[in-house]
From TrEMBL:
This is GTP cyclohydrolase 1. The gene is folE. One of its GO terms (biological process) is tetrahydrobiopterin biosynthetic process. It comes from the Bacteria. Homopolymer. It comes from Priestia flexa.
Length: 188
């Protein structure tokens, strides 16, 4: 995939400013198209990143019990309205065959997936599937909690409403005790 075309974004932002009745040559707006283009380059940097790449480093550790990284802060852009949504991701997995990854790699995968025009549901399943594909664990559970600005600042206008999504793979699909353990640890 090619790099972000900042010049094209700048032109589009100028057109949007004109379309809403603003003067893009007004002092406060002069550099806005440039700032927006730079911001888009940053917030959509995940378009050029494969989350599976973060799991290439695998450690041989005979640990086949729960690994949970909770409260991974993230932000993304709703692909329907191009406004932010943000919150926390909790990633749990049970390694198999001594295949564990660095804890920071879980957060890096979340970052890679969230930095694209996105849906919360897709972030949740993509992170879970990426772990399954690369680590082949006994099970994976990913929970995402987020507030969506498309519900807060427009439309229904309900600030504070949280959307929760989950993706459950492997042992967590059938073992209610394992699933309950993860949920309990996330709440604690």
């Amino acid at each position: 995939m090619s790099a972000v075309n900042k010049e094209q974004i700048e032109q589009a932002v100028r057109q949007i400013l004109e379309a809403i009745g603003e003067d893009p040559n007004r002092e406060g707006l002069l550099d806005t198209p440039k700032r927006v283009a730079k911001m888009y380059e940053e917030v959509f940097s995940g378009l050029n990143e494969d989350p599976n790449e973060h799991f290439k480093t695998i450690f041989g550790e005979e640990h086949e019990e729960l690994v949970l990284v909770k409260d991974i802060n993230f932000h993304s852009m709703c692909e329907h309205h191009l406004v932010p949504f943000y919150g926390k991701v909790h990633v749990a997995y049970i390694p198999k065959g001594g295949r564990v990854t660095g804890l920071s790699k879980l957060a890096r995968a979340v970052e890679a997936v969230s930095k694209r025009p996105q849906l919360q549901e897709r972030i949740t399943s993509t992170v879970a599937d990426s772990i399954v594909e690369t680590l082949s664990p006994h099970g994976v559970m990913v929970i995402v909690e987020a507030e969506h600005m498309c519900m807060t600042m427009r439309g229904v206008r309900k600030p504070g409403a949280m959307t929760v999504t989950s993706a459950v793979r492997g042992v967590f699909e059938h073992d209610q005790a394992a699933r309950a353990e993860v949920l309990s640890l996330i709440k604690s």
